[in-house]
Amino acid sequence: MSERRREFLKTLSSLPLIGGLFACGEAAPTAAPMRNYLAELGVKPIINGAGAYTMFTGSLMQREVIDVIAETSKHFVRLDELHDRVGEKIAALVGAEAAMVSSGCFGAMVCGTAACLTGTDPARIVQIPDLTGMKSEVITQKSHRFLYDHAVRDCGVKIVEIETLAEFEAAVSEKTAMLWFLNKRNPDGQIKHEQWVELGRKHGIPTMNDCAADLPPVENLTKYNKMGFDLVAFSGGKGICGPQSAGLLFGRKDLIRAARLNTYPNSDALGRGLKVNKEEMIGMWVALENYMKRDHEADWKEWERRVAVMAEKASAVSGVTTEPFIPPIANETPHLRIRWDQSAIALEPEAVKQKLRDGDPTIEVIPGEGYVTESVEIAAWMLQPGEAEIIGDRIAEILRAG
Ligand SMILES: *Cc1c(COP(=O)(O)O)cnc(C)c1O
Predict the structure, then answer these.
(1) What pLDDT digit, counting tens, does each position of 97-147 carry?
(2) Atom number, ligand 1, closest to the C-alpha of residue 109
(3) Is the dihedral of CA 356, 237, 218, 258 positive or negative?
(4) Ligand 1 centroid distance, CA of 207 (Å)
(5) Ligand 1 centroid to residue 103 C-alpha, Å
(6) Taking Cα atoms as reference points, which of 158, 118, 154, 152 lies closest to residue 136?
């Protein structure tokens, strides 16, 4: 760190309430002017009105997380020891028996599934994804099938889909290794959280809940573990604003132990490639601690303010209507939907999204399933100061010219 930057940070840290000055996901301030590496690469930074999307690099880490990453990078440590200690801290924060930092929520699900298949048996850990002579099926509800259950399939298991309780009881067998649940689809399935947990207990089969993007509310961090899920997985680089390639897996001690054995630094392991470096491991812990301490109400009010700013600017154009909305469960934060009378403004939503992308600064909004939406939808929580105003003005300009 340069002397100037050190001084700058010292001044910053002596200011009261500094942690509260930057909203979750707001970029850390930089001190000395640096080479503009993105410009050298010809990569344009975007205004992120989409939210915590991997393709737009998730969320932004806070200053303290960046600083701990930089500080940690100066030291060698025994990786397993660090993994143990960070895991203990995280487990205490979320009230779980045990925890580990994973390579995102996807990595958490791979390691968690592997744990249910192998336990701590060294021969099985070497054998998978060849499941000969082992349990080989994971049961989930049909409405919970999702792109990311590929993480479960990575372990070589077959996913068995059920809809009713009777179908569940018929499907469960000595081959069943795990019962997988997609938290955000809870309303869509016939079997809800508590009953899923109960079924796992009844049959002695571990349950896993994928809660990747389900923060806020912060209570979700402790809720599902308390409810009795044996394994709970979260993304680190979405609502928590931790390192984008980190995530959390927590739950039963024996399963976390087994999950650890199925990944680095163990070399002959299915999860060997799902490495998290020491910097991000510590960064994940610090980001989680900070997230849990945040003034979540103040964050919410700021997101609502941004939505109101964008709505006011867009709806000033005649024929344009706006509607604030909150997605249920995943990415549950204030959003804005913008529609217009297409007989007066002859622009498809996709054309508006392209114009936003082509402008300077370049703007991304919610891409939508299959990259198509019927309106323009914007998430407010990843915007930086002043960007809600820019988006509002730009959309008004595009629609006015439309
Ligand atoms: C984002 C997401 C994942 C993947 O999480 P990463 O942290 O990017 O690995 C898994 N499941 C769901 C439901 C998600 O939204």
Answers:
(1) 999 999 999 999 999 999 999 999 999 999 999 999 999 999 999 999 999
(2) 10
(3) positive
(4) 18
(5) 11
(6) 158
**Relative to the CA of 108, which ligand 1 atom is closest?**
9
Mutate which of 140, 145, 148, 215 for ligand 1 pocket (most atoms within 8 A of beta carbon): 148
Gap between the Cα atoms of 21 and 26, Å rounded: 10
The label of the residue with tokens 């960070």 reads 86
Q: How many residues does the chain have?
A: 402
pLDDT digits (tens, 9 = 90+) for 248-295: 999 999 999 999 999 999 999 999 999 999 999 999 999 999 999 999
Q: Distance, CA 209 to ligand 1 centroid (Å)?
A: 12
Two tokens at 170?
Answer: 């018929």
Would the pTM of this model clear 0.90, i.e. be above it? yes
Could you give all domains of the chain from N- to C-terminal order, each with its CATH number?
63-292 (3.40.640.10), 296-401 (3.90.1150.180)
Ligand 1 pocket: which residues have CB below 6 Å?
Answer: 54, 104-106, 148, 210, 212-213, 235, 247, 330
